[in-house]
Amino acid sequence: FEPRIRSARVTRSGLRGVEIHVEERVPAMVVEHGEPWEIDADGVLLEPLQAGVVADVPMLAGPDFSNFRAGSQIQTPEVRRGLAWMAILSDNALRLSGQVSEVDVSESRLTRLVLLNGVRVLAPVWPNGARQLSGLRATLADLAAKGMTPREVDVRFKDQIVVRGARPTGPVVTTTTSRES
């Protein structure tokens, strides 16, 4: 039993040949297991291939997986919720999954996303479709074009995106002039 193997199939090829087809599990998120471990899109817990080395995927914050063994399929509401968020964020039309570093499902009334640039996104408990997240992507792109980074973006409300604490991306440059008397 190897948890990283989703399926394996052996078939004959000709008189003496054998073909082996192996499908590996692909990490979807990193989880806390005393140290970072991974889970795939089905919620199967995967031990790191090498100590301290995990896939470059977002962290699922909130649940603790330290009581589960590698290969366990975890279907708690928190895991299903985190995986649902990763599925919608991975939508090619949105292009958001590469910007997310953490999906926090520790609160029952909202989901928090943390982007790689430090922006916090307050989101509904469960994803409610790509439309609101498309608006998030457009808002972030518009702010970036203006040289601004928000501290927090709230996408919990239908047809409304609330931006809080927008600030210039780079250092603020001020110029002063002095006059000699």
Task: State the gist of this model.
With 181 residues, the protein is α+β, with helices and mostly antiparallel strands.
Any overview of this molecule?
With 181 residues, the protein is α+β, with helices and mostly antiparallel strands. The chain is 16% helix and 33% strand. It has 2 helices and 13 strands; from the N terminus they run E-E-E-E-E-E-H-E-E-E-H-E-E-E-E. It has a 9-stranded mixed β-sheet, covered by helices on one side. The protein has a two-stranded antiparallel sheet with strand order 1-2. The termini are far apart. The mean pLDDT is 89.
Give keywords.
181 residues, alpha+beta
Helix and strand arrangement:
Layout: E1 5-13, E2 17-24, E3 27-32, E4 36-40, E5 45-46, E6 59-64, H1 77-89, E7 100-104, E8 111-115, E9 120-123, H2 130-145, E10 148-149, E11 152-154, E12 162-164, E13 167-168
Parallel strand pairs: 3-6, 6-7, 9-11
Antiparallel strand pairs: 1-2, 3-4, 4-5, 7-8, 8-9, 10-13, 11-12
Mean pLDDT across the residues is 89
Percentage of residues in strands = 25-35%
Radius of gyration, rounded?
22 Å
Fraction in helix: 10-25%
Largest sheet composition: 9 strands, mixed
- Give the strand order of the largest sheet, numbering strands 1, 2, ... along the chain: 5-4-3-6-7-8-9-11-12
